[in-house]
Every structure is written in structure tokens, then in C-alpha cells.
Amino acid sequence: MRRIIASMGILLLLAGCVKVIPEEPVIEPSFENYFGRISLQPLGYYFAVYGTLKAGDTVDVGYMAPRISEFFWTDSTNFEKWRSGDSTAVVRDRTLNQSVIDRYIVIPEDGQYYFIVVNWEDTTMGIAVRLMRRAGQ
Amino acid sequence: MIEFIIALQYIVRFDEKASVDAFINDVQKQYNVRVIKKVRNFPAIVVDADSAALEKISTDKRIRYIQRNQIYRALYIPNDPYFISEQWGHFVVFLNRAWDITTGNKNIVIAVIDEGVDYNHVELINQFGTTKGYDFVDDDPDPAPDDPDNELHGTHVAGIIAATMNNSIGISGAGNFTLVAYRALDESGAGTSDNIFEAMLEAARNPDVRIVNMSLGASTGDSLMKEGIDTLLARGKVVIAATGNDGGPVNYPAAFDGVIGVAAWDTTNTIGSFSSRGPEVDVAAPGVRILSTIPGNRAAWMDGTSMAAPLVSGIVGLMLTVNPNLTPQDVADILCSTAIDVLDAGRDIYSGCGLVNAEAAVKAAQGR
Q1: Residue A118 has pLDDT above 50, yes or no
Q2: Which domain holds residue B64?
Q3: How many Å is the maximal CA-CA distance in chain A?
Q4: Residue B285: which CATH number?
Q5: Which of B125, B181, B124 is closest to B154 using CA atoms?
Q6: Active-site residue identified among B172, B215, B275, B306
Q7: Which B residues in the span 228-267 are in contact with A, Cβ-Cβ below 8 Å?
């Protein structure tokens, strides 16, 4: 993995204007709920993805991070765009440099959604994560 | 910040040049929309509207934008420096949201039956009254540890419950309560039935004590211990106990009827592999990688159901703060009904009713 990332780094450097995307996530869960602590690698990211969420469902998202981090959520199409470095990716509730995130997110339409935390620092960071889906009325 | 949407309430921002009164009049009469208020010193109003009305009103040329009316609330995060980086357990059980409702009350007295407690610890010194408790091992009124370098457990448990919050030092407890320490375990971490029973009787006799935390256990119960539990419950004390760390059946006193048995939740989104299991488990709470106080103004990480139980004791302290009339059975019912069903659907032998939810439990206590 590190070798692949190093190669990507050179490629991105040559491309010059492409947004740098951090390393692969430490875990890639698919679940209903998550309550725990995860270790985010340097320039790594964590994402949570549920099965199909329905319009009106609520996802209760929270995390605490000791250092600089970024949070956003997006649908599957835009997640893939973001992951491939496409600057046209549309993300929601993007929050930078916030150590605590605590949100109820109401899902706008049926689909698969990704909830992402990025560690932009060059050291590993432990974060407390809390994610809970509540079915809509 | 935390936000959520109020159904049907919208803010309508209109142009500065428009006449406020004429605009409001048109909104009410022409569009049949109820105006809730004018935003002070700003060209905007708050309205109650359904989507059909919104569609009509949005065609008005005087409107700049319409947005949903949201609620923003202060999210209580204490300034204790290790809270954000280390106290994952407090966060995942929604304690920060419960603290938006209450951070506790010094009238709630929580008894810690355990090893000695360093009541002079900088994080605990303000959480004890003039009477610190009693040492039933040495039969003297000083419940401090005999061997502060090795007798850490009681101070750790006390810190999880009530280490001073928001003092810019170390960690945060689950709330702001008064502690009383009953030393019934010695420096080796062991204690006898008679000493523990005497501590229970003392807690039962103390009219101020509402909650008794027992982060201790044995694989079999005994009659004296049972009598102690029954006495505490008869006096209206909420008894919370660790379920055990051997992965086997639930230990006593947690296994006795009426005691709230607490299992340990791991950092990895599952129950701790060591956590004892059985039908007597009532709820789970974080019990792995828990940072708390130890004697000599220090802090350390510990694992175990011993660390899970005091977090629940603190949450119960918050519940009793908002509703002092709750009985032990009320408390047990609320903890169970509000717990997050994290493992098999319904009650299971690992997490009982599920992971404790401080916010929901405190709200339910308020509403009862």
C-alpha cells in the first residue's frame, strides 16, 4: 500500500493541480451503528457507509479528534469522485479544523451515503467515533 | 454545535427596500402564511408554512431567500485537556449531550465501596464533603489508600464518576457529585464479606447516599452480601456493580436481583472479550482504555467492568439530579429502555439491554 501511495504522490505532483487525496482508510465498515475509538493513520481517512438509507432517515454522527481534521458526508457518486481526486465532487457539511463534530443529519433522498473523517496531520490520531442510524417516520 | 430542523418553520429574508409592514401583511393575507415573529433590526420574518405556501411565497420578488429555521445549541465539551483526546467512553455514550441538560448536583451523594480513594487528589478534593468515608479494612475513619503506589483501583473508579469537570486539569468525571469512600478492599484489591457488608450497611444508613458503586465481585454470592444488597435497595439506594472480567457467568453482587450489572464495551464497537456474560447483565458501558485518576495527582488507563460500572453510576447521578424521586426500579427501567441495542436485537447476555445512552436516560428521567 505504501508503495502505491508513493507512486500516486509522484503522479499527483506531476499533475500539479489535482487535489491530494489521503491514504486509504483504516477501516471500511458497513454497519448500522458504531461506538468506539479508531486510530487514524497520518494523512489517512475513515469512512462509514451504510446500506441504502431512506429519505427522512437520520444519522447521528459524532466524533472527537485531538488535532486538525476534516469532516464531510456525501453520496456514493460524489464519494468516488472525491476519492479519485475530482475537484467537482459535491460534499456536504464540510467542516475543517474542528475537534468535535456532533450532528443529526437528515437524509435528503434514498441512496448510499458516506460519512468521512480525514486526518490531515502527519501523525497517527485516535478519535472517538459515534454513529447511529435512526429510521425516519 | 448541534443542529436539527423544526418542521414547517422557515425564515424569510426580504429586501431592505421593501416595506416591512406591507410585506408582512401580504404574506399573511395573500399567501395565507402565519407570521411567528419579526427578526429584530433585520429584514426577515419567521413563518409557519407548508410546502404549497412556500412555493407561492417564493415567487414574491421582494424575497432574497427562504431557509429552514434551525436550532443551534451549545455543545458542552469540558476544557479538561485529556477529555477530547482520551475520554472516548464519555463521548460514545452521549454524555456531552446529557451535560447540555445537567452536569450533576452536589446534593447527589455517591458511595464508592472499593479500595481506598485518594480524596486529596487535585481532581477529587472538591468532590468530598467533610466526612470522607470510612476504612472498614483498618477500622478507622480515613478511607485513603494504605499503599498509594499500588492501591489505584478505588481512586480510578472515583475519578470516572466525579473527577472535577471543566477545571482545565486532566480529565472529566461523568458529573459533578459528592463522593463518599468506603474502603472495603485492601491494597491487594481483595476484601472480605464482612468488611464489604459493613460498608454496605454504612451506605444504607447514610441518608444522603443515593447511589452505591461496587466495582468488585466474586464468582459466588453469599447470604451476608445478599442481605446487604437487600438493605440498600430497601432504603432506596441505586446499586450498580461490575459484572466481572473472566468472561464467565456474571459475578456477585452484580448477579443479585435489583443490582444494575454493567458489562464492559470495547473501543472496537463490541463487547469486551473479558466481560462476564449472562441474563444478569443489565447494560454495557465503555470499559476498555479508560483514563482516570490514580493516587498522587496522577492518571492512568485501566480496563475492566470495574471501569464501566462507575460511568453508569455517574449517569444515574445525572438522572437523579433532574428527577430526585426516581426509585431504584425506575432507574433500572429507564437505563434499559433507553439503552442502544448494539448487539443481537433485544436483550442479550453480553450487553443486556445495550450500550447505555446518557442523553436519552436523562431525558427519560426528566419526563417521568
Answers
A1: yes
A2: 2-73
A3: 50
A4: 3.40.50.200
A5: B181
A6: B306
A7: 265-267
